[in-house]
Specification:
Blueprint lengths: L11 E4 L2 E4 H23 L5 H25 L21 H19 L3 H19 L1 H5 L14 E2 L14 E2 L2 H22 L7 H19 L6 E2 L2 E2 H36 L1
Antiparallel strand pairs: 1-2, 3-4, 5-6
Helix pairs in contact: 1-2, 1-4, 2-3, 3-4, 4-6, 4-7, 6-7, 7-8
Length: 273
């Protein structure tokens, strides 16, 4: 195809005696970028920016464990009879939602240990989390995974035959779902930063906004995907999960906004009274 995106021939790069696995490398780049952005946001909030790297030391291991656990639990059929592959994260297979949940739990523990305001910290973490995902998703490109239905669009992604689902083995190019999600996450980063600067959201609600925006993007991307996945009533399980996350986060966001409006009205009535 003259107009399409080629896939790399290998998911690793040989540097003499060292083999660099690009999946892990892209995740590492995402973490570095997230720590940088987190530090900048902490500084603007009067929080010691050194806590960004300290927090990352807790969030990253917990996030990787949670992400892998989520993937294995939701796609357990892939590992039946060969459970040793469940720990081979370099071959891909990290469920973002599990990583975020475990990461947030680790952040709560870190804040409690260091006596930090968890709401302010979460407001600083939310855009940084989306940035890490934006960059980390490129690891899927190097592993030739996270692609969608066949397409003849100019930005169709070429996938090796051995990586294609058997029913699509005759197709040449597919929707680059990893790229769609990466670009969507970039928009989420910019939106969250703008929302934070506008101060339209009460402290602590930026993470709920992250879940709302990310879930919207993830739902339409999941609808494009054709890789094998556990299904429930004919739909990929992730569609059900992210629908629940979207609705729950939207409710939390609306309740928080309503409560903040009531507090503002109460404060105004006391001032005028």
């Amino acid at each position: 195809m003259l107009m399409s995106i080629p896939s790399p021939s290998s998911g690793s790069l040989d540097l003499g005696p060292i083999t660099l696995r690009m999946y892990g490398f892209m995740i590492a780049l995402g973490v570095i970028a997230a720590v940088w952005l987190m530090g900048k946001r902490f500084m603007s909030k009067g929080i010691n920016p050194d806590h960004a790297s300290g927090l990352a030391m807790w969030i990253v291991p917990a996030g990787i464990i949670g992400a892998r656990a989520y993937h294995v639990i939701t796609d357990w059929r892939r590992f039946e009879g060969n459970w040793g592959e469940a720990v081979q994260i370099w071959n891909g297979g990290l469920g973002i939602l599990g990583g975020v949940i475990f990461g947030i739990a680790a952040a709560f523990l870190y804040c409690r240990k260091h006596d930090l305001d968890i709401k302010e910290v979460m407001d600083g973490v939310a855009p940084a989390l989306a940035l890490a995902q934006c960059i980390g998703r490129w690891g899927n490109y190097f592993n030739q995974e996270l692609f969608g239905r066949p397409t003849n669009l100019p930005w169709g992604l070429q996938i090796d035959q051995r990586k294609r689902p058997i029913e699509y083995v005759a197709e040449d190019a597919f929707h680059p779902a990893f790229l769609y999600e990466s670009l969507w996450n970039a928009l989420v980063v910019l939106t969250l930063i703008k929302l934070g600067k506008s101060r339209k959201l009460p402290s602590g609600l930026l993470m709920a906004a992250y879940f709302v925006f990310y879930s919207i993007g993830r739902l339409w991307i999941e609808a494009l995907r054709i890789d094998e996945a556990t299904k429930l009533i004919g739909l990929r399980i992730n569609i059900w999960v992210f629908t629940a996350v979207l609705l729950t986060s939207a409710v939390i966001l609306l309740i928080g906004l309503r409560r903040n409006m009531e507090l503002n009205r109460l404060a105004e009535s006391k001032t005028t009274g």
